[in-house]
Design goal:
By secondary structure, the chain is an alpha/beta fold. Helices cover 17% and strands 30% of the residues. The strands form nine sheets. Strands 12, 13, 14, 15, 16, 17 and 29 form a seven-stranded mixed β-sheet that branches. The chain has a six-stranded antiparallel β-sheet with strand order 2-11-10-5-4-3. The chain is globular. Keywords: 2Fe-2S, FAD, Flavoprotein, Iron, Iron-sulfur, Metal-binding, Oxidoreductase. This is Apoptosis-inducing factor 3.
Length: 600
């Protein structure tokens, strides 16, 4: 993930030469800050960090021959340095990689959403997922950047008579994922005891990754995670894209998993005060809990809207699976109104078009996503929605929600327009859920965001914060304080907080990465484009096959794409290396450097 390695000095680089150039030298350090598995010489095919027998925690190998498969997958000269190939072992597939003259083999699917890693980006001992940017060490399979919780299985590779042979555990070939080994809690504690060595407020990705990282790194004291939700940690970004998914389908970890690894979860618990001097948290039900280390990762809450008719039913701020399921049910062959052109609002609108009789979107801006993607890309996305029967009412706001027998029937706009509505979804932005900290002594800015250092430390010793609730120094933008409410970023914050809780100095060093999905199409984004002053677009906006480079003062600061994988992941690698992409380098119109030459 980068640890606290110092950021290389920015140097100009021609994109054509950088994005897909095969790495020509082995770094002494790998991205996780440890000695590179490639820095010492090994014979071709040697495996750097043990074998699949000792690297996987998702299964317990019995060392019986029938549990393994062995296959010749190619000739030693079939792959050049820097190339990858998905290979079939009969009972499953693996990703074969050749870098610096050595072969390695790992799982071929990203454990996050199953993306084919052969289409990803290979660079300096790790591979980056083409869909959402997660990174994995090719020697260990360990996840080094997010999103996602699991790592990849690794497989034995050897070369005999110029033949490349892979030996793999059959179960690992099927699961395509590996949970890193975790320690157990050694303290004997009654679950009703009002003390936890680490207390985590919030069970989103920041909280969950923090808890798992502590166990992975050998922490053996008590960990308690509390949440206002009644559910186990779940994949919140899917809520607005897959409205009919159940809580079980969305969950990130099972109750058995948390119990096995001694991560206690208290559900439906709302924190009302934090006393940092007494190191005590008080809950709404009066229960108190003391802590030694605290992580605040309470996420965001919907921004309130002012309108008449707050008591009308079937108006939703989608926060949980029940909300999403109700929206889908109520919209079936009915009229749906979406208030706000946030990602959540627009994703819900897209998800409802094949269910609802009509879908209307109300927005305060002229064009959706203009502040994030720019006017041209925003217009192209708006056109996609209009083609799919979505009606926009822009430069507008809600004045009133009218009901009949308490059920929503009409949405009245400030323009006077009246829309038929059987269900309304409000996706008009959010703010940090930090009201309970007002008298705590934890420093917050004027908007309620908690200010933290690069180590996720607040102004209070032993109190950390992460995820949507924080502003932190973004190394990518010369340590500018930024709030980046991305799913991926929350994972990173959780890991960094955990390592620093354990006294292992680690700083946030990652490239912001997010995605959205509408009508079966995905848009991906990497970097930090806040305040961009121009957009350079390559490709065809009308066909929604394009790359948009966001520039500021002649420097590319962010990139977005549709139907051009893995360009966003490739540019993220360049950003992460500290190199600079200049505006003039992306204005040429030459798209040849977008073609992936590193895989077969």
């Amino acid at each position: 993930m980068g640890g606290c390695l110092s950021k290389p000095k920015p140097v100009e680089v021609k994109v054509e030469l950088t994005l897909l150039d095969k790495e020509k030298e082995a770094d002494v350090m790998s991205p996780n800050g440890k000695a590179s598995p490639f820095s010492d010489s090994r014979p071709n095919g040697a495996l750097g960090h043990g074998s699949d027998e000792d690297a996987s925690a998702t299964f317990r190998p019995s060392h019986k021959p029938r549990d393994y498969v062995e296959a010749t997958v190619c000739h030693v000269k079939d792959l050049e340095n820097g190339q990858m190939r998905e290979v079939d072992l009969g009972t499953g597939r693996a990703l074969l990689i050749k870098e610096h003259g050595e072969f390695s083999a790992i799982g071929h699917k990203c454990p996050h959403y199953g993306a084919p890693l052969v289409k990803g980006v290979l660079s300096k001992g790790r591979i980056r997922c083409p869909w959402h940017g997660a990174c994995f060490n090719i020697a260990t399979g360990d996840i080094e950047d997010f999103p996602g919780l699991d790592s990849l299985p690794i497989f034995q590779v050897r070369v005999e008579k110029d033949r490349v042979i892979i030996r793999a555990n059959k179960q690992a070939l099927q699961t395509q994922r590996r949970t890193q080994a975790m320690s157990k809690c050694s303290a004997v504690i009654n679950s009703s005891t009002g003390f936890s060595h680490v207390l985590i407020i919030g069970a989103g990705p920041a909280g969950l990754v923090c808890a798992e990282t502590l166990r992975q790194e050998g922490f053996t004291d008590r960990i308690v995670m509390v949440t206002m939700d009644k559910h186990l940690p779940f994949d919140r970004p899917k809520l607005s894209k897959s409205l009919e998914s159940t809580a079980e389908q969305l969950r990130l970890r099972s109750a058995e998993f948390l119990q096995t690894h001694d991560i206690e979860l208290l559900t439906e618990k709302e924190v009302v005060t934090v006393d940092v001097k007494a190191k005590t948290v008080t809950f709404q039900d009066g229960f108190k809990m003391e802590y030694r280390k605290l992580l605040i990762a309470t996420g965001s809450k919907p921004k309130p809207l002012n309108y008449i008719g707050k008591d009308v039913e079937n108006v939703f701020h989608p926060r949980n699976p029940e909300d999403a399921n109700s929206i889908a049910r109520l919209a079936n062959n009915k009229n749906a109104v979406i208030v706000g052109t946030s990602f959540i609002g627009m994703e819900v609108a897209a998800a409802l078009t094949d269910k609802a009789h009509s879908v209307s979107v109300i927005g305060r801006e002229v064009i959706p996503f203009r502040k994030v993607f720019g006017e041209k890309v925003g217009k192209a996305i708006m056109k996609l929605f209009e083609t799919n029967r979505v009606k926009f009412y822009m430069l507008n706001e809600v004045s009133e929600m009218r009901g009949h027998h308490g059920q929503l029937k009409e949405v009245v706009l400030k323009s006077g327009k009246v829309l038929r509505a059987d269900v309304c979804v409000i996706g008009a932005g959010s703010g940090p859920a930090t009201a309970f900290l007002k008298q705590s002594g934890v420093h917050m800015d004027s908007k309620g965001f908690i200010t933290v250092t690069k180590t996720m430390q607040t102004n209070v010793e032993g109190v950390f914060a992460g995820g949507d609730v924080v502003t932190f120094p973004l190394s990518l933008r010369n340590n500018k304080k930024a709030n980046i409410p991305h799913w991926q970023m929350a994972h990173v914050h959780g890991r960094v907080a955990a390592l620093n809780m354990m006294g292992r100095p680690t700083e946030v060093k990652t490239v912001p990465y997010f995605w959205s999905a509408m009508f079966g199409k995905s848009i991906r984004y990497a970097g930090y484009g806040d305040g961009f002053d121009d957009v350079v677009i390559q490709g065809d906006l009308d066909d929604l096959k394009f790359v948009a480079f966001y520039t500021k003062s002649e420097e590319v600061v962010a990139v977005a794409s549709m139907n051009y994988d893995p360009i966003v992941s490739r540019v993220a690698e360049v950003f992460g290396s500290g190199k600079t992409i200049r505006k003039r380098d992306v204005e040429t119109g030459d798209m040849s450097w977008l073609i992936d030459k590193g895989s077969q």
